[in-house]
Amino acid sequence: MKLIKRLFMFLLFLVFLVILVVVGLYVYVQATYNINLFTVGNSLVKLTYEVDENKLITNPYTEDDLISSKTQLNKINVITEKDNGYTFDYSNLNLEEMDIKLSDKECAAFFSQFCEESMNSTIKNGNFNIPFEILQVDFFDCSSEGANFNVIIRLDIREIKNSLNEFPLNLISGYIPNYLYISSTVIVKDLGELNYTINSKELKINNLETEECMEIFSILKNFIQLGTYEEFNINIGKIFVDGLIGNSSSEGFTYSLKKEGNKDLGPLGSLGVKGFSFLTNNNEDYYVIEIGIL
Fold first, then answer.
1. 8 A C-beta contact, residue 40 and residue 25
2. What's the CA gap between 243 and 237, in Å, rounded?
3. Phi and psi of 87, rounded to 5°?
4. Which residues contact 130 (CB under 8 A, 6 or more apart)?
5. 293 has which bridge partners?
6. Of 105, 152, 264, 265, whose Cβ has the fewest other Cβ atoms within 10 Å?
7. 131 preceded by cis ω (within 30°)?
8. What is the DSSP string of 194-248?
9. Which stretch of DSSP H or E encloses residue 180?
């Protein structure tokens, strides 16, 4: 739950990011901050264009992926059924002598289901309710060293946009889109035994290209201490990577299985989580929780 709430704090920042950029563009001059106003102006216009989700989403998940993810997790008795979804419950965890393998689509399905059950897929901030949806989780370039990890989220910010109906905010409402699409790609490097690093690869917002997003972040650092383009991307991607893997400071799914699931085998030792890996099999990408003798 804490991981999800942290995510929403960062996503909300993007809402105000758009407003700050628009307001600040004409306040600070190019000579002061070395900002290409023409380039940024074009980017702001592109933000208002409708996003073609059919082009944006390259790895969509379906209800079948939710069902198959439940089948995988039911094998170790780690979920409690609830309507058409589930909640995690480690009290009756029973690890088997086999790895747990989840596709990226299955991970997207249970991330989405968790958000729906825990927060009704809505961010509440003050008087605003901001519906959101996880549209995609995608692993690619999987190897023994790790993988690229992409997540795409859509935020419905129409309620905020419609509230900007008084001067001077009504002058900038036309620059604000109805939806914010945030695509974060990070590089996860496996260091062994649930140790890993996360590095930035790419962050995109709506129809903006990478360079245009970087330009917007170069402006923002003159307004608020938001961090660099790379730092912000890592903060977004880290929420999901930590939620899936985890460590002592961010107890994600895999770390929780390791912490709660050791099974005493007597003189043989104990059965538990040894690590994780990403792999590709028959053109499908998977996250694997490795189970074995410790």
1. yes
2. 10
3. -125, 155
4. 12, 15, 122, 123, 124, 155, 156, 157, 159, 160
5. 271
6. 264
7. no
8. TEEEEEEEEEEETT--HHHHHHHHHHHTTTS----HHHHHHHHHHHHHHHHS--S
9. strand 179-192
Confidence label for 266 from pLDDT (cuts 50, 70 and 90): low
Q: Which of 7-11, 126-130, 177-181 has the lowest mean pLDDT?
A: 7-11
Find which of 48-52, 84-88, 162-166 is predicted with most confidence, using mean pLDDT. 48-52
Of 238, 144, 228, the closest CA to residue 186 belongs to: 238
Q: How far is CA 110 from CA 51, 126, 286, in A?
A: 25, 28, 14
Is 291 in contact with 274 (CB distance < 8 Å)?
yes
Rounded (10°) CA dihedral 81, 88, 149, 10: 110
Place of tokens 């905020």: 160
Q: Where are the alpha helices (H) located in the chain, listed in sequence order?
A: 2-25, 30-33, 37-47, 53-56, 63-74, 104-119, 158-163, 210-220, 229-244, 253-260
Dist. CA 238–CA 10, nearest whole Å: 11
The contacts of residue 109 (CB under 8 Å, 6+ apart) are 61, 62, 63, 65, 66, 69
Residue 173 burial (10 A CB sphere; 0-12, 13-18, 19+)? middle
Q: Are 133 and 121 in contact (CB under 8 A)?
A: yes
- Alpha-carbon distance of 199 to 202, in angstroms, equals 10
What separation in angstroms does the CA of 7 have from each of 29, 179, 237?
33, 17, 9
